[in-house]
Design a protein that fits this description.
heterodimer; A: D-Maltodextrin-Binding Protein, domain 2; Arc Repressor Mutant, subunit A; 60% helix; B: alpha+beta; D-Maltodextrin-Binding Protein, domain 2; 3 domains; 18 helices; globular
Chain lengths: 200, 402
């Protein structure tokens, strides 16, 4: 039994995330996936693509505009409604938690759409995890650089060894109940202020 | 008192988030034992969704929004009440420099008078052959949409036929105007002053002149949360009232502007926020236009959720075909606004409370001392620029006549 393939439109200003979702949908056997990054001229694009399902980032500032456009049959050929299955509040919560919203054309059966929305949710979550890990790694690297610099300052100004300088930073952080990177930052700032500068 | 109840509230980057921001930043929430967590959102749709799934207990909302929710006009929306308004006024209508130039030739005046400038705009529209003016508002269920349409219609311009009205997010309006994608818009501050500062837009009129003493935003509260947490709701309303008192004091306006301008809030130049707060709006020639009641956070019972306001918004939903007029729908609209909860929360503070829950909009032509519980209260002037009167007991009749 073959049904016409659903046309899916992803609206996302974040190109990497859009690609991650597209890939998931294609792997799940959805061949007709279009992506729009830029909101300019979107009414025309939607009219051309005639999507059955629209997946959009919840944080997109243009959602109010899109929702009002979906309700105007003048702008789109078929009315599009938000995908809401009231009998399934868990999936609504999962979508909002993940930061996804989905719209479907009128009359489309919910069971055909649900796997698509679930795929989008899991890919959004995976993307957020990835972004968070990347951010953590970046912070970690920056912190390590700060500690290196602070250690260098202590070694130079107090004639300490590498280990002694690190031990002092760590001890100070523990005593003040702060992170070692914060102590390092304060030290770097203070050292900068104490240096003979050209600001006088 | 330590913060023993956490309330998460969504807001959009607009001047009239002032009461919420001040309640948090100036310690009024904390003094009520509330840990007020403010979450900035990019769209009203997002505010609605996150209220529906319980991320938010309450939100900064367009005054007609909770009514639209309860009337079933918005997807996903859950029952929502409005126990408090977040001030009066705060919007303006802005047009592009070329449209303003054409309006000036048609007799527009710099004093933002809606009658004169509506007539000028009508002439400009009549003289354009084919292309319709493109005007933007922020949401179909917004005071902006209804006031713009009211002003156009009362000026002899058919909002459905003579212009195109589209939806755009408020912070994007100045760019869209500068880029020529739209010819004008009705939005909240600071997004009108932003265009005037940049030299790409001119103010035409203000909400406070189209419908005097009218609410722009309300505190929309999840009905389920309000039922389950009456004590916490009371604390939140008291904190917001204290914040309104602080925001209403001109001595605090510079500090308020600086606070709102921060990246986590409105995220704009502080000077963009001052015209609305001081009532000294920016004129086309670099001068100032005094509109004392442009944004009113406290005076004139500015935070009272008048049922007549709810019913006027409802009347406009019916007028423009968003909802069918019926007794049942009218009741839903009226009961969305909850002056009873406002009275219960603020009564103990001994502040001025109006004697009634609704008033005839347009009956007060001058500031009028009224009977009130607690301290003395002055209301008005209120009403519409075209002199029409809205009697909340005669909605059907009003609709027949408009």
């Amino acid at each position: 039994m073959s049904r016409p393939a659903l046309r899916i439109l992803i609206i996302d200003e974040n190109r990497i995330r859009a690609a991650v979702i597209e890939e998931g949908l294609r792997e799940a056997g959805h061949g007709e996936v279009a992506i729009i990054h830029d909101i300019a001229g979107i009414a025309r694009r939607i009219a051309d693509i005639e999507p059955d399902v629209i997946v959009i980032d919840l944080e997109n500032p243009n959602r109010d505009m899109l929702e009002s456009m979906f309700q105007l049959t003048r702008a789109v050929k078929r009315p599009i409604a938000m995908f809401v299955d009231r009998s399934d509040s868990a999936s609504i919560e999962a979508a909002v938690d993940a930061g996804v919203s989905a719209y479907i054309v009128d009359g489309l059966r919910k069971d055909r759409v649900k796997p698509i929305v679930e795929m989008a949710i899991s890919r959004f979550n995976a993307f957020s995890r990835m972004a968070r890990e990347l951010e953590d790694a970046r912070t970690e690297l920056e912190n390590r650089k700060l500690v290196e610099r602070a250690r260098g300052i202590l070694m130079k100004s107090r004639g300490m060894s590498e280990d002694e300088a690190y031990a002092l930073l760590r001890k100070t952080a523990m005593n003040q109940n702060r992170k070692i990177a914060e102590i390092a930052q304060s030290l770097i700032t203070a050292a900068g202020l104490l240096e003979p500068g050209d600001d006088l | 008192m330590t913060a023993d109840c956490r309330i998460t509230v969504g807001f959009l980057p607009l001047l009239d988030s002032a009461l919420l921001v001040a309640a948090r930043e100036k310690g009024f929430a904390e003094a009520e034992g509330v840990d007020l967590v403010l979450v900035r959102e990019n769209s009203w749709a997002s505010v609605r969704d996150r209220l529906a799934v319980g991320h938010f207990a309450a939100a900064h909302m367009l005054a007609p929004m909770p009514i639209a929710f309860n009337l079933g006009l918005a997807p996903l929306a859950m029952p929502t009440i409005a126990p408090m308004a977040l001030g009066l006024g705060g919007n303006a209508v802005t047009v592009s420099v070329p449209v303003w130039a054409a309006m000036l030739e048609a007799g527009a005046s710099a004093d933002l008078d809606p009658t004169t400038n509506g007539a000028a705009l009508r002439q400009v529209i009549a003289s354009r052959a084919a292309e319709r003016l493109r005007l933007a508002v922020v949401h179909p269920h917004s005071g902006h949409n209804y006031e713009l349409r009211y002003w156009l219609a009362a000026s002899g311009i058919n909002p459905e036929r003579d212009v195109d009205i589209m939806i755009l997010p408020p912070p994007l309006m100045p760019d869209a105007l500068a880029a020529g994608q739209i010819d004008g818009y009705c939005a909240g501050e600071p997004w009108n002053s932003a265009s005037v500062f940049r030299g790409t837009g001119r103010l035409v009129t203000t909400k406070s002149k189209i419908w005097r003493s009218s609410p722009e935003k309300v505190l929309g509260v999840s009905a389920e949360w309000a039922d389950a947490n009456p004590e916490a709701l009371g604390r939140l309303l008291r904190a917001l009232y204290r914040a309104a008192q602080w925001c209403g004091d001109a001595a605090n306006h510079a500090e308020l502007a600086a606070t709102l301008a921060r990246p986590g809030y409105v995220d704009c130049e502080a000077e963009w926020l001052m015209p609305a707060l001081s009532g000294q709006l920016l004129g086309a020639d670099g001068g100032q236009i005094a509109v004392d009641d442009f944004f009113v956070p406290l005076a004139r019972a500015a935070t009272f959720p008048w049922r007549s306001h709810a019913l006027w918004f409802y009347s406009q939903m019916a007028r423009w075909g968003q909802i069918e007029a019926s007794d049942a729908n009218e009741r839903i609209a009226r009961e969305t606004y909850r002056p009873d909860l406002y009275r219960a929360a603020l009564g103990p503070l001994g502040v001025a409370l109006p004697g009634a829950n609704a008033k005839v909009e347009g009956s007060l032509t001058a500031p009028t001392p009224v009977g009130s519980a607690g301290a003395s209260l002055v209301l008005g002037p209120d009403g519409f620029f075209d002199g029409k009167v809205f009697d909340p007991d005669q909605v059907a009749r009003y609709l027949r006549l408009s």
